[in-house]
Automatic annotation (TrEMBL):
<keyword id="KW-0378">Hydrolase</keyword>
<dbReference type="GO" id="GO:0004416">
    <property type="term" value="F:hydroxyacylglutathione hydrolase activity"/>
</dbReference>
<protein>
    <submittedName>
        <fullName>Hydroxyacylglutathione hydrolase</fullName>
        <ecNumber>3.1.2.6</ecNumber>
    </submittedName>
</protein>
<dbReference type="Pfam" id="PF21221">
    <property type="entry name" value="B_lactamase-like_C"/>
</dbReference>
<dbReference type="InterPro" id="IPR001279">
    <property type="entry name" value="Metallo-B-lactamas"/>
</dbReference>
<dbReference type="InterPro" id="IPR050662">
    <property type="entry name" value="Sec-metab_biosynth-thioest"/>
</dbReference>
<dbReference type="InterPro" id="IPR036388">
    <property type="entry name" value="WH-like_DNA-bd_sf"/>
</dbReference>
<dbReference type="InterPro" id="IPR036866">
    <property type="entry name" value="RibonucZ/Hydroxyglut_hydro"/>
</dbReference>
<feature type="domain" description="Metallo-beta-lactamase">
    <location>
        <begin position="42"/>
        <end position="269"/>
    </location>
</feature>
<dbReference type="InterPro" id="IPR048933">
    <property type="entry name" value="B_lactamase-like_C"/>
</dbReference>
<dbReference type="Pfam" id="PF00753">
    <property type="entry name" value="Lactamase_B"/>
</dbReference>
Amino acid sequence: MNALEHQLDYPYADTLPEPGLAFDVAPGVKWLRMPLPFALDHINLWLLRDEIDGQQGWTVVDCGITNDTIKARWEAVFENQLEGLPVLRVLVTHCHPDHIGLAHWICAGGDKARWDVRLWTTLGEYMQARVMAAGDGSNAGGDGAARHFARHGLTDEASLDKLRNRRGYYGSLVPTLPTQYRRLREADTVTIGGRDWRVITGYGHSPEHCALFCEETGVLISGDMVLPRISTNVSVFDMEPEGNPLGLYLESLGRYETLPENTLVLPSHGKPFRGVRTRIAQLRAHHDARLAEVMEACERVPQSAADIVPMMFKRELDIHQMTFAMGEALAHLNLLWLAGKVTRTTAADGVIRFAA
């Protein structure tokens, strides 16, 4: 546990759900944990006891990527953890593969087609997922991503080739999506198991991220917007090269700062914790420090995003991590540029650089 984590309260300490088993964390809420084949090696998923139109069952929040291991663990959950009741709906916080990848399969009842239920999410997340699943501007790979990062200083040809070869990356994790969905919007109230959950949307990490807060039980399902150990990735990708996701993210954090400090935060990665305002203050301080470092570097000599990456990420990065590192470095540069604190020019070598 690092120094910042010591400022938070982890009510379940080091307890984690066993594979294929659900762990009670709040009234009517069970915690599942599924593996991921990345450096970030897990995702937390949630089962909420529910009733819709007189039918008893469960709401699933987030799904995991499409792969056989996760399907097998979900099948164990369906058989042994649902008290013989069906899933009644699938609610997805956002469009990233570890959250929406298996939505189509869970909505259709898994391998045994046990039920046929609706996907609930925001318009921004559903439409972005549809675009990326179609292979049009996936952000994570393909020719567009390679051109985008080359313009920002990634000149290693081997890395660029790896990016070009990832054009089907999103679709490999999200092979299809439900063709219909139910729209969620900011401040909507979703009644789940007789309790009201307020939708809190957030921006910067994804187009229209959906978190859920239950005032009655003091529980926030935070998705990726508020994480306890790592900072949420905010990246500028090729689809919106002049975007300001970091500005949007920092603005969005204000929607969580009004929640009680003792709110039980259920994050998508890491462990449940209390201390939401403390954690947001830590995240703000983290980005303030990063912005100061980036500004100082730009005052010394013009900087590309690739120049900033080793300053922000002091470890070896694989191509998956490099896409997010480049995107996040550019997010900090774009915030300073759009605020008028640095200028942006394209040099003779075709690389975009930022200077104070």
